Amino acid sequence: SMVVLVDPRNTSKMCSRCGILVEKTLSDRVHSCPQCGLSLDRDWNAAINILRLGLQSVGIKTVEACPF
Question: Which domain covers residue 43, as residue numbers?
Answer without folding.
Answer: 1-68
